[in-house]
TrEMBL record:
This is Decaprenylphospho-beta-D-erythro-pentofuranosid-2-ulose 2-reductase. The lineage of its organism: Bacteria, Bacillati, Actinomycetota, Actinomycetes, Kitasatosporales. It holds the Pfam family adh_short. It comes from the Bacteria. Its EC number is 1.1.1.333. PANTHER family: 5-KETO-D-GLUCONATE 5-REDUCTASE, DECAPRENYLPHOSPHORYL-2-KETO-BETA-D-ERYTHRO-PENTOSE REDUCTASE. The keyword Metal-binding does not apply.
Amino acid sequence: MKDAFGLPQSLLVLGGTSEIALATARRLIARRTRTVWLAGRPSPDLDRAAEELRGLGAEVRTVAFDALDPAAHEEALGKVFAEGDVDMVLLAFGTLGDQAHDERDPRAAVRVAQTNYTGAVSSGLVCAGALQAQGHGSLVVLSSVAGERARRANFIYGSSKAGLDAFAQGLGDALYGTGVHVMVVRPGFVRTRMTAGLPEAPLATTPEAVAVAVELGLRRRSETVWVPGALRVVMSALRHLPRAVFRRLPV
């Protein structure tokens, strides 16, 4: 069960090799988390992530999970919840894609959408149902400021995150009053392997900074968290710019 500050004893990570997710897991283990499930495609990276967290004192297990295989989500994730209550689910998987390439290859664009949106809808609903059945828990969804308004430079990725964000907000409203807390996290540009080589955007942040924001959001039972916080004001302004002006901005 969570402590008085809303921090979990048990954690399920969907996207077990995500740098943001692992930074969050490390921070939560340093506080009180003792059981961690890392769900992802079996790989040496997943095994290394598990070993690292075990070295911090947590009991860590891995589970085979593929966002692109929704038919297997209920069985795979059901096995985790069958082992006992899960205090927090962190939905952290996603793919950036390659905008220029994906515009020319619709199948590649669909893969981005299926990973970031369809896979999240499927696994998110499975986990939400399990959390509701146990009567408590938090579902933390890593969204992105890219979903706030589609940009020419990454509208395929941005549109998938917009769908994810809307889904998570609606799910949070559906679960309100059930004991299940849904929190949407909207980071800006995060310095990770996924963004390596890309021009760094203003207000860039780190996985560790996102982890700090997630912990604070859990303590406050926030519904939406921006990382860094200044992006809330920036995106509010950009969201309301006339389209003719917005498309001319170097964003």
